Amino acid sequence: MSIEYLGVREVAGSLIVLEGVRDASYEEMVDIQLANGERRRGRVIEIREDVAVIQVFEGTTGISNSNTRTRFQGKALEIPLSKEILGRTMDGLGRPIDGLGPIFPQVHWDVNGNPINPISRKYPRDFIQTGISAIDGLTTLIRGQKLPVFSGNGLPHDALAVQIVKQAQIRSHGNGDQRFAVVFAAMGVKNDVAQYFRKSFEESGVLDNVVMFMNLANDPVVERIVTPRCALTAAEYLAFEHNMHVLVVLTDMTSYCEAIREISSSKGEIPSRKGYPGYTYSDLASLYERAGMLKDREGSITQIPILTMPNDDITHPIPDLTGYITEGQVVLDRSLHQKGIYPPIIVLPSLSRLMKDGIGEGYTREDHPDVVNQLFASYAKVQEVKALAAVIGEDELSPTDKLYMEFGKAFEEQFVAQTQEENRVIEDTLDIGWDLLGILPRGELDRLTEERLDRHHKPKTKDRD
Question: Locate the ATPase F1/V1/A1 complex alpha/beta subunit nucleotide-binding domain: which residues (predicted)?
């Protein structure tokens, strides 16, 4: 028997507090009827004895302490799912907003998902080609991995996200897998940014293979907390029910964490670092750990969360905690962006912890691991030479050091930099790497075997262009 409660004890921000509640459960959905007949939805986020704290999705404006009627549904938030969600655009709660009518569901799934037993996981191996050299070559994305992008305000992470969605394909067998799909979730974005995403996917012809969840900046903050959970639930359905390989792009996780902080403050919780609640780590982990592969399923979920670092501070709690949970990071750099380099990926602090098991012979190309090691080592040497040049002047550098300066400039302009429409296959990326290593003397390439050098190294002449 369903019980209806009349009146609320307290209204605070987007929260209402009910007392005398019986048999309520955490994450349970609630129907709220205002005195004027308007209906809203909420969910239980805290229970203390007979007191329940409820998030109201549409906000608490107009809610009366005495005439509000509340009814508990006895289940968590569920979204309708079928394969026809491909090509559709939903709001942050999984409701269609593209004017194409409702979803005719095959199933309804709880957006909170189910924890994956670590024993049932399959180790990620296959390479996902993004067509972006700085990612494919040096911070390789592996199917089933979670690889975040650390960006900053004003940096082109939106353009990078669009390019990845347009170009990503699995290259485990040399060709793109036809069962590849993308789930794209935007949280707290402005209307013009949302329109940019929609238009870009539509014009590129990939929209039919993309599921979009859009939470705009003027949408309720509470909805922002649910958006990535809806997106990941859709990804799990496509991956584990229809055996598809799903790439999930979540942007911007900073907006999501700020929503958590706002809700936590409304609840009166004791803040931790920079005002974020102490459970931020476990909350982020509940999202990131929904990526992966299962031994008894053919499908997979790969995650690329994108976050903007406040003041470009990589030690800020959001990138700091994200780095602990995920398997590497791709870092965008403001100084490279100011040089006009796109994408402005700074390779030295970027890494992919799983790339060693997904590159080389049988995955990308047999020389890939050696080229990566040498490019990293040589570009690190470039930074040392730049520091020396800042002290003694570039004219006083040794001939070898001047070659490193030339290599560093060419590396940024030819390897890292590419246009937003340029889709490089991994073979082209590795060939560019070998071409750049030809700038340096053979004796400096100490991460490569003599056999590898004999086969691939092409030294440049002194009168090179």
Answer: 131-352
